[in-house]
Amino acid sequence: MHVGMAAIFQNPEQARSDREVWREDLRLALMAESLGFQSLWGVEHHFTDYTMCPDVLQYLTFLAGATERVQLGSMVVVLPWHNPMRVAEQISVLDHVSNGRFVLGLGRGLGRVEFDGFGVSMDTSRERFTESADMILTGLERGYCEYDGKIVKQARRDIRPKPWKSFKGRSYAAAVSPESGPVIAKLGLGMLIIPQKPWEAVTEELRNYNTVYQQVNGVPAPPSICAGWVFCDQDAGRAEELARKYIGGYWHTVLKHYELRGDHLAKTKGYESYARMQEIASAPGGADAMIDFFLGLQVWGTPERCYQTIVDTQKRIGSDRFVGVFSYAGMSPAESERNMRLFAKTVLPELNRYEV
Fold first, then answer.
1. pLDDT of residue 167
2. Does the pTM exceed 0.90?
3. Are 68 and 33 in contact (CB under 8 A)?
4. What SS3 class is residue 24?
5. CATH value at residue 294
């Protein structure tokens, strides 16, 4: 199994300076290649302490110059917040400087604070995502962008530097709502899964996605990529205590950033499927129940338990790679490094030997 590492640059409640968070998470990312991780990933978010990486392609371009072998993945570029022509150019530059190591991940976004900050209506996000992704993916294959969509309008312009390597087979999209699966299947994109709902629902949506992908593209869908929050410790009791503290703490930042204690998503076009999540989060005791549920989906415990959790997830969803997050929710730099090093020493070699 391929195993990657993601840095997300969280600074909940601004307990440290942003500079310190960036220096420490960047330090961990720069350790990953020597520890045996096969890919490095970044996310895109804006305006809050939820995650402070507003330009994932810029971050990955730096890593391209600081590493030699690891793949570099975006988890994800949120297309409704960008001019798609600029994104196509940035992708091409990154693929050139990394010598073809880039794995493209795309998404449509969920945070109202981010859409409002860019003056983009959430009601148009699915159309913006679909048209932007269609233009970018087609443009990367033929070397120029041209599009006449409902929202995206682009006169023909060359992508320079010209893309030199196909992105087919190394392009993915994050899908959380059930309606997103068929959309990304029709675009020829692989599935990037960030566990946050029952596995039964995920596997059913994957079946629908796989069916549409085969029908539209004439070949089976590629294996999915699965990400997860990791807390690894040799002591089972300490692992459970601190996993609850930190993974639970991460979920608190999700509740805050995405305003899940509310009802706006039920009223927003394309986000109606999130209504139940907001109902639960807003009910008495609902947030605590969601933390327990989220904790149950993530990777924590002794090295043996972490390994088994990842293998069990692979068997459920047919993923061929796992991407772990090791620093989050105000975890100290020392704890984050200990967490990642222990996982790399004990779990990573076993996963590398595991045949998917």
1. 98
2. yes
3. yes
4. helix
5. 3.20.20.30
